[in-house]
Amino acid sequence: MASSLKNLSEYDDSNMPSAEDMSFGIVVSEWNTKITHALYEAAHDTLVKHGAKTDDIHTLQVPGSFELPVGAKMLASRKKLDAVICLGCVIKGETTHNEYINQSVATGLMTLSVASGKPFVFGLLTPNDEQQAIDRAGGKHGNKGVEAAATAIRMVAIKKGLDEQKQTIGF
Ligand code: DLZ
Q1: Is any atom of ligand 1 closer than 6 Å to the C-beta of 99?
Q2: Is any atom of ligand 1 closer than 6 Å to the C-beta of 29?
Q3: 46 or 11: whose pLDDT is higher?
Q4: DSSP designation for 3
Q5: What confidence tens digit (pLDDT) does each residue in 32-77 have?
Q6: CA–CA dist 125, 32 (Å, integer)
Q7: What are the DSSP calls for 56-110, one per residue?
Q8: Ligand 1 center–CA 164 separation, angstroms
């Protein structure tokens, strides 16, 4: 499996666009708080490391991962945001609750992204057990919060680049 071969949070630090003029939302689920807090810290640190101002990062906590899409929509409709990073952790249990939540979050965030033309980044861990979550929240597989923040910055830069081209070409 790819995840057993490398640290998933390794990204080309030197090749990242500046996030200086970008604004972000971070929506974080309270379920499995130890994990989601580690994701949040990593995402926030990554945005700041690449130039985002703390005043331009708006955080919202929601009760569980199922609430991530509606929380993201609430935040995006009240603040001027270039991207929203959604962070949660759904650990597989004895029943199939995880499948319903994970699929709903994926569909909800994709729908928001496509409808708005803005990135609503999927930073949801979907582990089989707590150890797999720990491994991806600052453990041996890095921190998915870093990847989610890097994705948000890159997608905003892509959109800004396309917007500039459109102005230059004039259509
Ligand atoms: C109900 C529930 C369960 C069983 N497990 C998790 C979980 O592992 N991670 C998570 O983020 N949320 C969980 N939830 C809560 C749901 O996401 C949601 O908050 C409730 O079903 C209320 O809509």
Answers
A1: no
A2: yes
A3: 46
A4: G
A5: 999 999 999 999 999 999 999 999 999 999 999 999 999 999 999 9
A6: 11
A7: GEEEEEESSGGGHHHHHHHHHHHS--SEEEEEEE----SSSHHHHHHHHHHHHHH
A8: 41
DSSP state of 119: -
Tens of pLDDT, residues 121-161: 999 999 999 999 999 999 999 999 999 999 999 999 999 99
Letter for the amino acid at 48?
A: V
Q: Are 58 and 161 in contact (CB under 8 A)?
A: no
The residue ranges of every structural domain in the chain are 27-111+131-161
pTM of the model: 0.93
Q: 27-111+131-161, superfamily in CATH?
A: Lumazine/riboflavin synthase (3.40.50.960)
**Site of tokens 């994701």:** 39
**Is the beta carbon of 34 within 6 A of some atom in ligand 1?**
no
